[in-house]
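Q: Here's a chain of 420 amino acids. Please give me its 3D structure as tokens.
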Amino acid sequence: MGERRIKFLHLADVHLDTVFQNREAKMRALLREAGREAFRAGVDLALAADCHALLISGDLFDNQTLSFTTEKFLLTEMQRLAQGQVQVFYATGNHDPAGSKYRAQKIRWPNNVHIFAQRTPKAYPLLNSEGQTIAMIVGAGHENSRESENLATSFPAVQNYEVPSIAVLHALVTGSSSEAEHERYAPCTLLDLTEKGYVYWALGHVHRRGILSESPHVVYPGNLLGRNPRENGIKGAYLVEIDDYGQVEIDFYPLAPLCWHDLTINNLAEADNLEKLEQLIVRAVEVQLKDKLREEKILLRLKLIGPCPLYRELAVAENLAALTENLTPLLSLEYLELNAEGVFPPLYLGRYRDEPHILSELLNLISALTGDEAKLLELAPERLAGCPQNIESKEKINYLYTLLQGLDYEAVARLVEVEE
């Protein structure tokens, strides 16, 4: 008997040819090509790692906007995988459904591409180079763009444990920290997945990388490329190995050529001229991003908040555009989006803290909350805009602290008339 060790690459939510919500045509073109580069890098990795399979858990492309160029690109990359004897198992999602009127069904895929195109799960054997079945790949796909049924419940329980069974599905696991950020397409519970007997659930739909369970493995690789500043951080895919004893080893590999970061700077009180302003911003970005500026091609959304002597100048669109143009090469950025709406005139909080008025009460409350985590959680509403539901208390506290940052200055700026 030959070795039955299994190796595959798991990726999802590639969103080739998606419509990027950016005002600049150059930026949209850059992101569009970066999506292809990221997928090509995934194919390179699968070939270099001698993978048996590439698992694609939905939303490979956006059905409505898929171009001929990208369709040809996909077929070329699938042929590369075929030449390297890599099988592709692709479960369609809500953006690339496989009903008869959609593109996924009409493309003539190479023979190494196996599409899970129907709600009803289908199983394929994964063969090694000797023709032995080393795993069963079971998957289901979206037939339309608004799949509301729980597809996971229709997956058959594993009966034969001679080889591992691996599931591929584009679905939203309810109760996860990212639930509020995504549409409820093919919703299921974690228990729906863990009780079936599969050693690995290759999921897609959630754009934030996460391992929901390790026994068995239930995994979201996240999307392959951040499409906007909210989808920040390193993006890529999971390289997975399952040994002869069914033990799973999983490693994340960055693949996206571009990386979004979202930063806030609140140290501009001494910036009374353009040179100082640029120096303070550059220094703060370098401290927060550290080695990332040298190691990554960065797309940065930067928020300036707090007191700044140049608050009037920063409210002028022409000045903000000039500052953006100056900072982009200074920081070696691919793109910079600058927001200075949170900048206020310089204010001295001490003069307002001990006065007998509502502003004093507000400033003292903000100060007290900064050091009282229990009180902060008590006063916070159950649902917070921009904050995922069902997160750990520590994560919620960190998020609340970001909301408190600069709030004292903002309160004074809003309630006190600024002296000219």
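Q: Can you summarize the key feature?
A: The radius of gyration is 25 Å.
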